[in-house]
Amino acid sequence: MITIYSIPLIAVLLGYVLAVVIKPANRRNIKLLLAFSGSFLLTLTVTHLLPEIYYHEIEKTIQITDHHAAHSETVSQEAHIHTESAVQHTADEHDHHDHGSMKKIGLFIMLGIVFQILLEFFSKGAEHGHVHIHEKFKKIPWALFLSLCLHALLEGMPLSHHHNLAYGIAIHHFPIAIILTLFFLQAEMAKKAIFFFMICFAFMTPLGTFASQHLSFLSDYYTEISAVVVGILFHISSTIIFESSEGHKFNLAKLIAIIAGIVLAYFI
User: Fold this and answer.
1) Is pLDDT at 124 greater than 80 in this prediction?
2) How far apart are CA 153 and CA 147, in angstroms?
């Protein structure tokens, strides 16, 4: 249990320390790490998180249907109505409810994608490594700070049920922490402000996990929240993977990094 809290936290802190101490100058390696993290995260999302959300919803639907079936059978016996008719009515109700539930999950996934697009209006795409220096920062860029923290907070919420996803979030946040720290250093932001920014960012994902475990109103909407996070992860990871290479040239190293991320995530 401690792992789902510590792994995403340590990944951000390691990225921060690496950027401050080593100051890696080779951006090509960071881009390859980003490509790997994007494919790793997307694979975990489609092979673990997404199927389990639908499975959870199907189980809930079956429990509701079984309850209705038992109730219908009792009523039919008391009223001397044929049980077959009651069961058929319950089956029809199940099909309708099942279809509606599946559509609802799809809707929340799309809401997650749209929500992430709105966040990127303020973060300028920092979640997938797109930061550019246009000015010097004398203080913390609060729009970027709040959007990134909200993004990381939401990402942590499904981890209480999907422990493997912690590795995906960690591998995703590690290069982002490097890129952000280097960006702030080059923008001449105060070192104390950079440290505050990265510490808050590091704790947001564990905070989201803690909140989803201990706040009952969040657990009641577990399926909806997880579907929103799936949409967020879809948008982030696919943007990292499918963004055009420089000059639109075939990049073998990037392709290998993407395939490696897919293979590793599949076998976790």
Assistant:
1) no
2) 10
